[in-house]
Amino acid sequence: MARPGSRVEEHGELTLFLQAGDGYPYYARPRFPDGRPSVADVLAVRERQRSLGVPEALEWVHETTPDLLAVAREAGMDVLQAPLLVLDPARLPEPHPHVRVLGTRPAEVTAVAALAFSSPGTAAGETGAAERDAALAEAGTTSADTRHRHAVADLPGEGVLAVGTAQRAGDVVEVVGVGTLPAARRRGLGGAVTAALARDALDRGAGLVFLSAASEEVARVYERVGFRRIGTACIASA
Questions:
Q1: What average pLDDT does the segment 5-30 reach?
Q2: How far apart are CA 238 and CA 233, in angstroms?
Q3: Which domain holds residue 54?
Q4: 12: pLDDT confidence band, cut at 50, 70 and 90?
Q5: Which pairing describes strands 14-19 and 159-169: parallel, antiparallel, or unpaired?
């Protein structure tokens, strides 16, 4: 989903996405279709990313470019193999009464996501509303980001406990950044946020909704709200 918000450079059999303005620092991926990057291609892209001061990162689908797993590792990268899932619309659950989808990015999305990803996984923890409120006290209110859709689980008396974002390119939507405050986990809120973004995407004409999960355990959360696994997303870092 990098192409709409970036410019590109070609490095051998790899395409490097470069952020436009203050956007997200994107990754490189194999040339599409049929790209077969070499170790030299990976090393060249890593050098270019270092020169730009952006993360050294590659992403690809293992089933379409299986040889790149060994190549990336030979080039000195660590590779996360993440379950890749697509939505089965017929299996979407009923909407959660306290989940809202927004066209702008409230400060809670950044604050809650940061706290959630600092304690990855699905296990409950101690970080909760107090830490969220402290982070919000140092942040602004609402960003001008209107390119994406954002969902929040905003419970009465508790505030925003879970968040997520949907990024769109044409009629394809990727759900990203789903996170729940550790103290609020095991209440179905991450799944509810994901389902709300998926339903909103369908209502707005999306033909395909997909996501990647950080682990098999996290994938099961998404499977419970209508997603099914179709492959493996590889995410390589320095």
A1: 83
A2: 17
A3: 3-76
A4: very high
A5: unpaired
